[in-house]
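User: When convenient, might I ask for sequence and structure tokens for a protein?

AI:
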Amino acid sequence: MKWTQVSIEEAEQMLENHDVLLLDMRDHLSYLAGHHRRAIHLNDMNLKALLKHTARSVPVLIYCYHGHRSQDMAQLFSDFGFTSCYSLKGGYEAWYPEFCMAERELSDELIEWQLWNHFDPENLDHRADNNETALMRLCREGNADLALELVEAGATLQLINEDGNNALWMAVQSGNELLVEALLRAGTPIDQQNDNGATVLMLAMTMDMPVMVRLLLASGANTELTTVDGFRAEDAAVSKRVLNQLKGWNSYQPQQSRAA
């Protein structure tokens, strides 16, 4: 696999896609003095975790001081199986004068929540315990308003925690169907499999949530994925009502296809 060098203009176009993981590999003091608001500070402490717990399909854009060391880091991510790796030409020094990303200002309520919960308001993808981001925490709490404000501001949707779960997993856990719908519309991966191979559909089956199961099926959830132990979504059903949702959907799909 090969990394790609991109210009400032190309980088800004890439960042219109909320899924891009932006990494700043300068020293800590330089990062604190100024950085792109979506950038995660890449260092020896979190490099291993990022390589292990970030989905390989997530595009990774890296910048350093002048655009040299970031090339080696982009190659490293590529060697670890990441399919889209980019190094910023000219680095932060070339980009800084044009740092006028038209991103939405965060509300006082969201900033207060971030500070209270020890998240950095200037880093939308800042990690806390268990590699959890602010978006994951808000989804776990079922706080749709602040979670979706973070999504609109540019929080990365494809990040996962130490267990391999993304924000959608937490939203399903909360039982907030409107939040789940909004995350799916925004492009959050529906078939992300965690370290055990479980998906959000399996989670909803386990939690006995027939409405959520129907929502996930209608949104394209894959019913054939298996856990590391070989279990599928139907094996996770804890009641007939969720199992009937799944079986009813599966039996309807072929008829729908023949009708088409």
Notes: Residues 86 and 167 are 25 Å apart (CA to CA). Confidence is low (pLDDT under 50) at residues 254-260. The domain at 190-260 is CATH 1.25.40.20 (Serine Threonine Protein Phosphatase 5, Tetratricopeptide repeat).
